[in-house]
Amino acid sequence: MTGDGPPLTPVDAARTLWQIGQDISAATADLIQQRRQYPGLVRARRMAFARAFLAAEGAQDYRRQVAEQAAAEARMAEETCEQSIEALKDRLRELRDRSEIGRSINSNLKEELRTLGGQP
Questions:
Q1: Could you tell me if residue 85 is inside a domain?
Q2: Of 26, 46, 75, 113, which is most buried by a Cβ count within 10 Å?
Q3: Are 17 and 101 in contact, with CB atoms under 8 Å apart?
Q4: In this structure, is residue 5 part of a structural domain?
Q5: Cα dihedral: 14, 16, 18, 19 (round 10)
Q6: Three-state SS for 34?
Q7: Cβ-proximal residues to 69 (8 Å cutoff; 6+ apart), any chain
Q8: Residue 117 lies in a domain
C-alpha cells in the first residue's frame, strides 16, 4: 500500500496503518496552523483595502479600484491560505480512506491466516 504494493502480512499492514496515522497527524497539524493564520490574512486584506479606499480621492468607483489594487497582494495571500486549507482537507480525506482500506486488508490478511491455520 505504501509504494511497493499491498501489505502481505498483518505486520506489514500494521506498519502501513501506523505510517498513515503519522501522516494524518502531520496533515492535521498543518491544517490547524493554516486555520490559525487565515483570520490575520483576512484582516490584513480588509485593512489594506480600507486604508487605500480612505486615502484615495475621486469618485467612489475609482476609489474602490485603487483600494482593490492596493489590497491585491493581501488578497492573494488570503486566497493561497484558503487553497492550502482545502488541499489539507482533501489530503486528510484521502488518508482516512487509505486507513479504512488498510484496515480492511489487515482484517482479510488475519482471516486468511486463520483459514490457513496460522497465527494472526
A1: yes
A2: 75
A3: no
A4: no
A5: 170
A6: helix
A7: 52
A8: no
